[in-house]
Amino acid sequence: MYVTWYTAMSIDGRIAGPGDDLSFLALLEAAGEHEAEFAEFIATIDAIVIGSATQRWLVKEGQALPHRGLPIWLVSHDVALAEAAAAADADTPVTRVEGDIAPILDAIEAAGHERIWICGGGDIAGQALAVDRVDELLLTMAPTVLGSGPTVFDAAALERRLFTLEELRRYGANGVRMRWLRDRSAT
Ligand SMILES: NC(=O)c1ccc[n+]([C@@H]2O[C@H](COP(=O)([O-])OP(=O)(O)OC[C@H]3O[C@@H](n4cnc5c(N)ncnc54)[C@H](OP(=O)(O)O)[C@@H]3O)[C@@H](O)[C@H]2O)c1
């Protein structure tokens, strides 16, 4: 199973500002590339992993689900949140999971999924990186510093992990798109 963490971040490595403020994303949407690129990306994915905080942010913004049609694995202790997500769309299976991330990822793989998108947030991505299950990073860096908020890998302690740069380009006027692949050949 191949796991991609595709997200947008600030120059200081944050995926949201204080109080879950994602207004900085407008700096990238203005670039006009996002929709087509996201459509191309999501066509390669067969399941989505999302944490409670990201799901709650979506609900707050009036989006019941991160994406419709693909199975969603909600990593959460919140039964009501999962029930609400499951009720949002009959064609989008929602499975709530909790506990260690490695067996969660094993269960997703055992369900037959091959290409996974970690939709968010940094807490889930940090846990996945800690157990070395992140294969690809697709990061778009917005031209701003947020100062506080969850980081792209929001984990207290992580081991060193090497990545190989596959793509680097300007994104819109002042953003940067980076694609990194996990390099497990070296320590
Ligand atoms: N820049 C972007 O494109 C982007 C992308 C995604 C998210 N975001 C933003 O990032 C913020 C959320 O990120 P985050 O890192 O704070 O949180 P997150 O990863 O979305 O969710 C963390 C929460 O998920 C639950 N959880 C995590 N691991 C668990 C486990 N192993 N078992 C059971 N439950 C577990 C816990 O909540 P419970 O105990 O309450 O269940 C935990 O507090 C939001 O503001 C979101 O909008 C931004």
Structure description:
- The chain is of the alpha/beta class and 187 residues long.
- The protein has helices at residues 26-29, 34-42, 52-60, 79-88, 101-110, 122-130, and strands at residues 2-9, 47-51, 72-75, 94-97, 115-120, 136-141, 163-171, 175-182.
- The mean pLDDT is 95.
- The two termini are 22 Å apart.
- Bound molecules: NADP nicotinamide-adenine-dinucleotide phosphate.
- NADP nicotinamide-adenine-dinucleotide phosphate (NAP) binds at residues 7-8, 15-16, 20, 22, 51-54, 57, 75-78, 98-99, 101, 120-124, 127, 150, 154.
What can be said about this structure in brief?
The protein contains six helices and eight strands; from the N terminus they run βααβαβαβαβαβββ. The chain has helices at residues 26-29, 34-42, 52-60, 79-88, 101-110, 122-130, and strands spanning 2-9, 47-51, 72-75, 94-97, 115-120, 136-141, 163-171, 175-182. It has an eight-stranded mixed beta sheet, with helices on both faces.
